[in-house]
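User: Run a structure prediction on this.
Assistant: Running it now.
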Amino acid sequence: MGRELNAYERALAEDRRVIREMLRVTTGGAHVGLAVTVLMVALFAAFGGARSALTVGGAVAAWFALTLMVVIFRGRRRWAAVTRAYVLTFGWGGWL
C-alpha cells in the first residue's frame, strides 16, 4: 500500500477536501441559477427592450451550447451530457 502521510500532507488533503465540498454544484443549485437567469432576461426585456433580452438570452444559450459540446467531446452521452452541461452552466445558483 502507500506510505503514511506526514502532517503537512494530511492538512493539505483536508484543505483540498473542504474546497471541493465548498465549490460543489448540484442540480438544485442549477435550477436556482436558471430561475435567476430567466428573471434577468425578463428584466432586460422589460427595461431594455427585446434586443437587450435577445442579446443576454442568446449569450446564455451560446454558453450552454458550448458547454454541451465540450461535455460531449469529453465522453458524456445523451441525458448525462445535457445534465452535466446544465449544472456547469447554471450551477452557480447554488452559491446564492
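The mean pLDDT is 86.
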